[in-house]
């Protein structure tokens, strides 16, 4: 108890008493993730407001040998940003500075706590935007996007978060600060620590700011919801549109049963007389006029694979089309809760996997249904299983992730490994890779205080 009080006193000295939250009720919102599945009791929640304060917090915790859990918007789905028990949660939500847009390089520096939607709003007057976009834009933060190497809706054109990061500022496990925010396009002076930290889920350092590459906005947009005959046709149509249309930004797959579910749960009316086996939401953008004719011609070129289409350039109608994709998560929660898995497959095997997983889930878990949607040209599927008995969650994971591994895919496409998938990481990484991971972790965090149990087993733990 004396050690705990001494650490809390030191932390108050670093960030101020009002930013050290040790009351049980006040801490509660920081101790559970969005899925409500992952929760734990923190020793305290600390809210630093500068990189120097983050460094002071980490240094104090390192001295007390107390682990820290970095946390941004806490929108993750795999338990990567909540405590297991006894850690200090370092909330980065006060790190909200956004620098001026550099018009020559097309870059900006943003704090780790900046919410994605707020960043986009601040960039809009400069005619620039961050290329990463996702449904959780109103709560996801820059630091979280970096920590998980977030993907989202526009990877097909611009890549994942890693491709947007020019450099990072971060606090290492001993409280020292590394900073590469100069924005150099070329820098061949050794190891790229920034790239190493992207996707590391807070296990190698606490990201406090990012230098980000921006793209010009393309405000004139046209959206289409296409009815297709199968998942295989959805993949083929999306690839055809990508090759024909430089303006294509988005290609989202929703299978028919999921389209029907979201319509039923959210009171939506699909723009088709009959719910198709699969649907493809596509969107094109331009800086001048919406490329309506260009998209229509490309869709017609796909022939019989596209059975019906709803197309609009009007904002209100486009928003209605988007509801069939962006309200899926809420619809699943209302019908669930679902068992959620985020995976990626080689494009050549995506359709076969999609067909197989639906059949195998239904056969293995009577009464369960499998709902699929995702970023089709990234090979990224969100697999959601409804109706499986609560005690069968691990068995569901084993079935789905085993099928992913057999198909040559990845068990974690864009949400990371967190705590949820630590025991399955061997399905996607070889023994040599896992040994290298442990070596890197041991070099940068020898005491194991940074997000223990996330991505890799905590010291002394075992994993299958």
Automatic annotation (TrEMBL):
Record-level GO BP terms: respiratory electron transport chain
Tree of life domain: Bacteria
Q: Which keywords does this Swiss-Prot/TrEMBL entry list? A: FAD, Flavoprotein, Oxidoreductase
**CC cofactor:** FAD
Is Oxidoreductase included in the keywords of this UniProt record? yes
Q: Per the database record, which ranges form the FAD-binding PCMH-type domain?
A: 38-217
Asked if the Swiss-Prot or TrEMBL record annotates the protein with the keyword Coiled coil, the reply is no
Q: Which Pfam families does the entry link to?
A: FAD-oxidase_C (PF02913), FAD_binding_4 (PF01565)
User: What GO molecular functions are on record for this protein?
Assistant: (S)-2-hydroxyglutarate dehydrogenase activity; FAD binding
Q: What is its EC number?
A: 1.1.99.2
- Family assignment? Belongs to the FAD-binding oxidoreductase/transferase type 4 family.
Name the record gives this protein = D-2-hydroxyglutarate dehydrogenase
Q: Which organism is it from?
A: uncultured Acidimicrobiales bacterium
């Amino acid at each position: 108890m004396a050690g705990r009080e001494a650490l809390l006193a030191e932390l108050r000295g670093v960030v101020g008493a009002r930013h050290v939250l040790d009351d049980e009720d006040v801490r509660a919102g920081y101790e559970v993730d969005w899925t409500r599945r992952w929760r734990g009791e923190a020793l305290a929640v600390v809210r630093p407001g500068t990189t120097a304060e983050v460094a002071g917090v980490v240094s104090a915790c390192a001295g007390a040998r107390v682990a820290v859990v970095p946390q941004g918007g806490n929108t993750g789905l795999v338990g990567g940003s909540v405590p297991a028990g006894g850690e200090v949660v370092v909330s980065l939500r006060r790190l909200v500075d956004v620098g001026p847009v550099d018009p020559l390089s097309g870059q900006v520096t943003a704090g780790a706590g900046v919410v994605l939607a707020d960043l986009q709003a601040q960039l809009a007057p400069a005619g620039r935007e961050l290329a990463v976009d996702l449904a959780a834009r109103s709560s996801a933060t820059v630091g979280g996007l970096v920590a998980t190497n977030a993907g989202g809706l526009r990877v097909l054109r611009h890549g994942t978060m890693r491709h947007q990061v020019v450099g990072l500022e971060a606090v290492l496990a001993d409280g020292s600060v590394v900073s590469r925010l100069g924005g150099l396009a070329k820098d061949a002076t050794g190891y790229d620590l920034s790239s190493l930290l992207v996707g590391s889920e807070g296990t190698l350092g606490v990201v406090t700011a990012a230098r980000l590459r921006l793209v010009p906005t393309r405000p004139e947009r046209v959206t289409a919801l296409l009815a297709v005959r199968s998942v295989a046709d959805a993949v083929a149509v999306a690839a055809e549109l990508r090759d024909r249309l430089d303006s294509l930004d988005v290609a989202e797959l929703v299978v028919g049963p999921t389209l029907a579910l979201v319509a039923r749960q959210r009171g939506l009316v699909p723009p088709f007389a009959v719910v198709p086996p699969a649907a493809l939401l596509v969107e094109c953008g331009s800086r001048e006029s919406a490329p309506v004719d260009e998209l229509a011609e490309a869709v017609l070129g796909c022939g019989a694979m596209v059975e019906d289409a709803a197309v609009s350039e009007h904002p209100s109608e486009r928003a209605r089309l988007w509801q069939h994709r962006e309200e899926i998560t809420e619809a699943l929660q209302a019908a669930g809760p679902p068992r959620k898995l985020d995976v990626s497959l080689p494009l050549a095997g995506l359709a076969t996997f999609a067909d197989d997983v639906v059949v195998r889930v239904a056969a293995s878990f009577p009464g369960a249904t499998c709902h699929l949607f995702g970023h089709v040209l990234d090979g990224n599927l969100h697999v959601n299983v409804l109706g499986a008995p609560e005690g069968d969650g691990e068995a569901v994971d084993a079935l789905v992730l085993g099928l992913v591994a057999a198909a040559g895919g990845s068990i974690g496409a864009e949400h990371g490994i967190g705590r949820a998938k630590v025991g399955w990481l061997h399905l996607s990484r070889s023994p040599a890779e896992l040994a290298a991971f442990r070596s890197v972790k041991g070099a940068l965090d020898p005491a194991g205080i940074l997000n223990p149990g996330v991505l890799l087993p905590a010291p002394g733990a075992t994993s299958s």
